Amino acid sequence: MNKADIFEFYRRLAEDNPSPETELEYGNDYQLLVAVVLSAQATDVGVNKATRKLFESVKTPQQMVDLGEEGLKQHIKTIGLFNAKAKNVIALSEILVRGHGGEVPADRDILETLPGVGRKTANVVMNTAFGAETFAVDTHIFRVGNRTGLAKGKTPLAVEKQLDKKTPAPFRLGAHHWLILHGRYVCKARTPECWRCVVADLCKFKPKTAAPKTKTVSKG
For the whole model, what pTM was predicted? Predict the structure, then answer.
């Protein structure tokens, strides 16, 4: 995909969704960090269901520490890998209280040192909370990047580097959300809905999937 096609690719996604944002529900930077950690190998819908009541009473790292690991498990037990995630969330909360004054650091390298926080999670927090031009590559973005030809790579990091290199200035901040939402709702894993894709003619994926046939009801 050449520079003109890439610009047009993002322009259409932006026109279709002018204000892209995460579908995770949160009230502050700390709650965002917790939600993103919990979302690993889980859906945003599932995480939101688990955190709505939790976030009513837990708004700070200290409040999470006070809740404790067992208390947290009761809130998130519907989420996959909840035991490990509860342990990580309590541990990272203790670190934030002890070493960062209860605040989420606006530094990707520091974020990556927190338990349960990998590069993808750190990139999401940097982008969503602090307005950094970072590219968090999850399964959706990895698929969209490779399938469309926008950013090919054999690893998430390789795709991230391609996106960082190729994404033009006007679209760098919103790119993560445009791509993840496109992958979640249009460029789906099993059957991409090419017939309603706004960038289908720019995409390198062959063959394009056709719209499902509508059943005709006979009158008689």
Answer: 0.88
